[in-house]
């Protein structure tokens, strides 16, 4: 399988292991950095249905953390500061210095907020794609995390990768579909993702205790039906904290698979408003 997996971006070495970063689009335009949700086996393909519509207007960057996509299955620390630092180092190794527009999906919302907290000059805006915040985990307990970890371990052992959210069939070529299937087999419910799950409550606490951030923010939200209780309410609370525009869609958590056209129009309008 290793010989058949061929990345479409660039590999940089962090802590003696490879991180995969995909870059495309208008080199002279603002940079949007897409940050994947938990257990997304191949972020570069998962986000393609969205970013391929933005290449004319932006420099598009997709970071794949350890255990995701084409990056190494390296068991690095999963505390929030290390997660952010590794992604930041990967971009700087490629000559990227920001400021960036961060576009986190789901659990990487914690990383985006922390990035702004620790390196405020790096982040010019946030575009949340049904992003998690410390509020999202306020209803979680340690027992919830243990149950989630046990489920992931069982699914990994039984090789049930196909229950994961699929990529949009409108966006990938035949070769990309083949690559995505290979990455599902390699990455689904791997130890890196399990370690992230074990650390998420502590990460949410650290981000929450460091206080609110301030930056232009656009939030896209799902109907919350496949998320934990109070998801929609907490999206509304976070939007109020950030003084952000919240756009809600009646669809599932991977909203970019369902509403990419509508989202792209809103993203272009939002970023254009930042430049005025």
Identify the quaternary structure here: single chain
Computed over alpha carbons, the radius of gyration is 17 Å
How many extended strands? 8
**Helicity level:** 40-55%
Order of helices and strands: EEEHHEHEHEHHHEHEHH
Description:
This protein is an alpha/beta fold. It contains ten helices and eight strands. Strand 7 (217-221), helix 8 (231-242) and strand 8 (245-248) form a beta-alpha-beta unit. Helix 3 packs across helix 4 and helix 5 runs antiparallel to helix 7. The longest helix has 19 residues, at 191-209. The radius of gyration is 17 Å and the shape is globular. The termini are far apart. The mean pLDDT is 93.
Question: Would you kindly provide a brief summary of this structure?
Answer:
The protein has 276 residues and is α/β, with parallel strands linked by helices.
Topology of this structure?
Blueprint: E1 10-14, E2 17-25, E3 31-35, H1 43-46, H2 48-51, E4 59-64, H3 80-93, E5 100-104, H4 108-118, E6 123-129, H5 142-157, H6 174-187, H7 191-209, E7 217-221, H8 231-242, E8 245-248, H9 255-258, H10 260-274
Parallel strand pairs: 3-4, 3-5, 5-6, 6-7, 7-8
Antiparallel strand pairs: 1-2, 2-4
Helix pairs in contact: 3-4, 5-7
């Amino acid at each position: 399988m290793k010989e058949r997996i061929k990345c479409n971006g660039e590999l940089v070495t962090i802590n003696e292991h490879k991180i995969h970063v995909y870059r495309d689009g208008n080199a002279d335009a603002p940079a949007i950095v897409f940050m994947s949700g938990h257990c997304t086996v191949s972020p570069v393909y998962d986000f393609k249905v969205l970013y391929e519509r933005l290449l004319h207007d932006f420099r598009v960057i997709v970071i794949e953390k350890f255990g995701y996509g084409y990056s190494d299955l390296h068991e690095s620390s999963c505390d929030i500061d290390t997660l952010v630092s590794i992604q930041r180092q990967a971009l700087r190794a490629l000559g990227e210095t920001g400021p960036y527009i961060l576009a986190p999906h789901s659990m990487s919302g914690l990383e985006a907020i922390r990035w702004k907290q620790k390196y405020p000059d790096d982040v010019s805006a946030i575009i949340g794609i049904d992003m998690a915040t410390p509020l999202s985990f306020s209803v979680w307990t340690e027992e919830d995390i243990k149950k989630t970890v046990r489920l992931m371990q069982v699914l990994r052992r039984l090789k049930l990768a196909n229950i994961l959210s699929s990529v949009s069939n409108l966006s990938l070529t035949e070769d990309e579909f083949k690559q995505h299937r290979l990455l599902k087999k390699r990455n689904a419910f791997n130890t890196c993702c399990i370690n992230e799950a074990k650390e998420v409550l502590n990460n949410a606490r650290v981000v929450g205790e460091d206080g609110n951030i301030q930056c232009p923010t656009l939030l896209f939200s799902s109907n919350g039906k496949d998320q934990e209780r109070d998801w929609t309410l907490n999206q509304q609370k976070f939007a109020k904290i950030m003084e952000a525009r919240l756009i809600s869609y009646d669809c599932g958590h991977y909203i970019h698979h369902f509403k990419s056209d509508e989202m792209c129009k809103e993203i272009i309008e939002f970023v254009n408003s930042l430049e005025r």
